[in-house]
Structures are given as structure tokens and as C-alpha cells.
Amino acid sequence: MEFEAVIGLEVHAQLLTQSKIFCACSTGFGAPPNSNTCPVCLGLPGSLPVLNREAVAMAVKAGLALGCQINRNSIFARKNYFYPDLPKGYQISQYDLPLGQDGQIEILTGVRQEAGHVGEYQPRTFGITRVHLEEDAGKLIHQQGRDSYVDLNRTGVPLIEIVSEPDFRSSQEAYDYLNNLRRTLLYLEICDGNMEEGSFRCDANVSIRPLGSSELGTKTEIKNLNSFRFLQRALEYEIERQKEVIGGDGQVEQETRLWDEEGQKTLVMRSKEEAHDYRYFPEPDLLPVVVSEEWIEELKAQIPELPEERRQRFVKEYALTHEEALLLTQTRQFAEYFETAVRTYNQPKAILNWMMGDLMGHLKQDHREIHECLIRPEHLANLVRLIDEGEISGKMAKQLFEKLYETGDDPETIISQENLQQISDEDQLTRIVDRVLEANPEKVEAYRAGKAGLLGFFMGQVMKETRGQANPEMVSQMLEGKLRSSP
Ligand code: ADP
Ligand code: ZN
Ligand code: MG
């Protein structure tokens, strides 16, 4: 029998607010353990939570960007469970009436093929079940075989949970959705998207069913997915595992599993019997969250062009491939850099190549972000223009790029300061070529006797004389002409 995979994703994203969701403590990362705490986030009796307006604004923007209905009166609920990283014994979350629900996104998704090849992309719509606000728990630090410590700085940091419908049919679709979701939150500037540091976490729910069936099979939930690659590998492993179980006439158990990256497999973490009963009930210390129509409109107006829209526009407007457009729209800053450069000089492909090659290479090496880059997009565009106009050779452009990167000056300034112009003056080049040929009579002889490879030697000599500034095309034409004609 043929099976298809059914996948639903639950994402927790940390919001970039200054202070926590129910108190004024800082959300700053890396402070001494337990220093960013107060009676509210420590869960001391008698303390009262006060909702952070900025967190609500961010969550509403996320909901809108994901096509959700925003509930004008959503409510907070207590999710009861005991764990040492949760001082109150319950987490304040949303349950019956989340801030946002019934959304959907349409993205291009498809088979990613080997580097250089363009995969086949298809538009697919994925449902968003809900977007709700909640508080994060603290962090436990275990010393191997010794003590365990609790750091409550993270307790009360605002999160949004984004739950998808079980709409993904392959690990690739799940990957593309997650990538788009992450980019969307980055574009909204409400989350830093860092998966390794845990500010963007994903749990995956997986089941399989006979192809053509519309019923859902028993699912397992996979945790500990710290990167997009882990997610993809874990899903592929789990789909195969379930196929084997069912193929062997067994039954998939409903359970929570952990991805073990070292062993490249999923392991049972807890079974259905051990599942929590959270006994949700409305949080009595907080009023319903009232979001007015005007506020929604105000927040809507702050939403920029989103990554998927921008990607599809780039493909049309600049004749780029989907892969190229995806790379360029990875962050808002990167996309804006590209568009500013293209507005200065309309050669999208060449600008893309410089950005993806030299620029990215340098930034990666220096651990810099694009907004920390000294080269202005206008300057990069002018560099490309100078090459096209024959002012500088490709080789000189590389040198020039280094200077632009180090100094932040514009190309024209550097060219005149460093005397970098390409020499395209016919008379000047003729004199140099003649000098080189006169200085090497045996080599000229040898060339004429058939050693055509010596052309490179002559080129090299001319370049040396001109510090690499001779127009290479002109020089090679001159050399060939002069060497062909007998003395
Ligand atoms: P739970 O009650 O276990 O939390 P939910 O119904 O709330 O399950 O769904 C949690 C996530 O699991 C959602 O993203 C949903 O789309 C997905 N999901 C639910 N049922 C299945 C299934 N049978 N197969 C795959 N994913 C599923
Ligand atoms: Zn606090
Ligand atoms: Mg659930």
C-alpha cells in the first residue's frame, strides 16, 4: 500500500520586547542568573501580572501577517503543570479564545535539487490554526552527575505559539513553511529567529495514512529540533519508521519523541499515558485582551511587504530565478540593499553575483551583518557600472572591491586616489607592447615557431608594466596582431 505523510507544526517564537510579558523585568540575554526577576515572574503569592502592550502589538502583527482573524476579546488561561523551571506551578497561556485564528499562507514550495539546478515550485496553501500569546518558562542547567540549577531570567519572556493545520505532505513542504514563517517574523522585526539559542523553536507532529484517505492517522510529536536540517532529517526518519511499523502490521503509538542528532533517529520521550492533563481554566488575575478595530488598522499599516510577496515580485521584476530571489529576500536588509543598488544601476544579475559572492563572503568571514557593511549599495552598483563601461577590468574590480569594503569610500574616489583607471589609450598601450616584445626576442621567435602558449607570458609582462591596469582585451588583440606579422 502507498502511504502519504501528514505533518503539522507548532512553533514558539520569542518576541523582541524590552520587558517581560507580565512584569517590567528586562528580557535581556546573558545577565547573571536570576538577576532579571521580580515577585511577578518569580511567582510569589500576592503578586499580580500586568499585560505588556508591546507584546500584544507584536502578536497581532504576526496574526495579521499569517492571515488570521484577530479576536477582539481574547482571554488568558492557566495551563497547570509542575516543573522546577515554572515557579507558579502554571503557565499563563491562551486556550479557548486565542488572539488570532483561522489563518493561512500561500507559498511556493517544491523539490530542492542539487546546487545550481532550479527545483520545481508550486504554490501551496497552508492553514494556520491559531496564534496565541504566552509566557516562557525558566531554564534548567544540569551539571553532569552533580547538581541542577534553575535560572529564572527567561521566566515570563513573551512568546507567541503558532500552530499549523496538518497540511504538509513532505519534509520539504514543512521546511519551506518554517523558513517562510521565520523570515516573516524577521521582516516584522518581532523575533530574532535564532533557532540554536531557542528564540525560534519548533515541534513537529507526524502521522501517515493510505494515499487517498482523508482520515488522520495516529501521530507522534517530535521535539528537540534545533535547526532546519534537524527538522528535515527527523521528519524523514519518522515517516520511514511509521511506514515500517504499519507495514509490519503494527500500530503507531501516540507518543512524544526526541530527535537524536548523533544517532540520526527519534527516541521515545513519553507515551500517551504520561501525557499531562493541564486542567486549563481562565486566568482570574487578567482581564480579556481588548484589541480595538483602530489599533488593528494602525498595526496593519506597519506591516512591510512580506518575504514571499517580495520574492515573487523579485522573480518578475528582475528576471531572477526562484532560488536567487529566495536568497535575496532572506532578510529585509539584504533585499533592500539589492533594490537600492539596482535603482542606482539597473543590472540585477551582476549586482546579485557581487552580493552573493564577494560581499557575502566578506561579511561571513567578519561575522558582520549587511547593515554593518561599509560598502553602500550605490557604491556596489557603481562598481558594476565601471566594469560595464570598460573603466576597470574584472581583476581591478576585485582590488577595488577590497578597498570599498575596507574604507566605505565611493569607487570614483578610490580610483583617482589610487590611480586605478584602466589604460585604454591606444598609443600608450602600443608603446608598452612594443617595449615588451623588443625585450624578449627569443620568446617572440619561439612564438612564431609555434609556441602559442607564450601569449600568456607577453600578457603577463604588459600587465606587470602597467600594474594590472592595461585593458586586457586591447592588449591581447595588439599582441596577436604584432606577433602574427613578420618583423
Ligand atoms: P494535541 O492535542 O496533541 O496538542 P492538536 O490537535 O492540538 O494535538 O494538534 C497539534 C499539532 O499537531 C497541530 O499542528 C496539528 O496540525 C497537528 N496534528 C494534529 N493531528 C495530527 C495528525 N494526525 N497527524 C499529523 N499532525 C497532526
Ligand atoms: Zn519580573
Ligand atoms: Mg494542542
The tally of structural domains comes to: 3
Described by the principal axes of the CA atoms, the overall outline is elongated
Number of strands: 16
Largest sheet: 9 strands, mixed
Based on CA atoms alone, the radius of gyration comes out at: 30 Å
Judged by helices, strands and strand pairing, the structural class is alpha+beta
Report the uncertain regions: none
What's the total helix number?
Answer: 16
Helix content percent band: 25-40%
* Beta fraction: 15-25%
Strand order of the largest sheet: 2-6-7-10-1-11-12-13-14
The first-to-last residue Cα distance is 82 Å
What binds here, in terms of ligands, is:
adenosine-5'-diphosphate, zinc ion, magnesium ion
Summed over residues and divided by their number, the pLDDT gives a mean of 92
If you had to describe this structure to a student in words, what would you say it looks like?
The model has no long low-confidence stretch (mean pLDDT 92). The protein is 40% helix and 21% strand. It is built from 16 helices and 16 strands. The radius of gyration is 30 Å and the shape is elongated. The longest helix has 20 residues, at 228-247. The protein has 487 residues and is an alpha+beta fold. Helix 8 crosses helix 10 (377-388) and helix 13 (426-439) crosses helix 16. It has a 9-stranded mixed sheet with strand order 2-6-7-10-1-11-12-13-14. It has 3 domains: 3-295, no CATH class; 305-418, no CATH class; 426-484, Arc Repressor Mutant, subunit A. Bound molecules: adenosine-5'-diphosphate (ADP), zinc ion (ZN) and magnesium ion (MG).
